[in-house]
């Protein structure tokens, strides 16, 4: 199983960024995917989930209405569109999948929101 995130970077408050996670090593279209984040000095925070078909999504209250998760089962990718970014969104963002009771994580991508 391999998960590779990309798309992080520096943004000013109010701007947008789009993260992408490329998955391999498993049948992507049959598993739900998750994004989580870890801010400096804090624990891991769940951000969003998407079901295998992409027909149901869930969001943490802290990002609801600003972030959108989506997936492309032909390309084995799951994206996180982040709008109206706030300084408190600064974190390392990880995509993750739960396979047969084992949770796998990517290496993470840094998002920094600062003026």
Structural key phrases:
globular; 0% helix; 11 strands; four-stranded antiparallel beta sheet; 115 residues; seven-stranded mixed beta sheet
Describe it for me?
- The protein is mainly β.
- The chain contains no helices and eleven strands.
- It has strands at 2-6, 9-11, 17-24, 33-38, 44-50, 57-59, 67-72, 77-82, 91-99, 102-105, 109-113.
- The strands form two sheets. Strands 2, 4, 5, 6, 9, 10 and 11 form a seven-stranded mixed beta sheet that branches. It has a four-stranded antiparallel beta sheet with strand order 1-3-8-7, with no helix packed on it.
- The mean pLDDT is 97.
Give the gist of this structure.
The protein is mostly beta strands. It has strands at 2-6, 9-11, 17-24, 33-38, 44-50, 57-59, 67-72, 77-82, 91-99, 102-105, 109-113.
SSE blueprint:
Blueprint: E1 2-6, E2 9-11, E3 17-24, E4 33-38, E5 44-50, E6 57-59, E7 67-72, E8 77-82, E9 91-99, E10 102-105, E11 109-113
Parallel strand pairs: 2-11
Antiparallel strand pairs: 1-3, 3-8, 4-5, 4-9, 5-6, 7-8, 9-10, 9-11
Q: What radius of gyration results from the CA coordinates?
A: 13 Å
Summarize the main sheet: 7 strands, mixed
Shape summary: globular
Structural class: mainly beta
| H/E topology pattern | EEEEEEEEEEE
Strand content bin: over 45%
Mean pLDDT: 97
Helix content: under 10%
Per DSSP, the total helix count is 0
N-to-C CA distance: 37 Å
Number of strands: 11
Low-confidence stretches: none
């Amino acid at each position: 199983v391999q998960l590779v995130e990309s798309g992080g970077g520096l943004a000013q408050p109010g701007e947008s960024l789009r993260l992408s996670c490329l998955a391999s090593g498993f049948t992507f279209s049959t598993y739900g995917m998750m994004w989580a984040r870890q801010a400096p000095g804090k624990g891991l925070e769940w951000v969003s989930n998407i079901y295998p078909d992409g027909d149901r999504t869930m969001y943490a209250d802290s990002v609801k209405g600003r972030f959108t998760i989506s997936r492309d089962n032909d390309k084995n990718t799951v994206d996180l569109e982040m709008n109206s970014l706030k300084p408190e969104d600064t974190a390392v963002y990880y995509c993750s999948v739960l396979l047969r009771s084992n949770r796998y994580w990517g290496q993470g991508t840094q998002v920094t929101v600062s003026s």
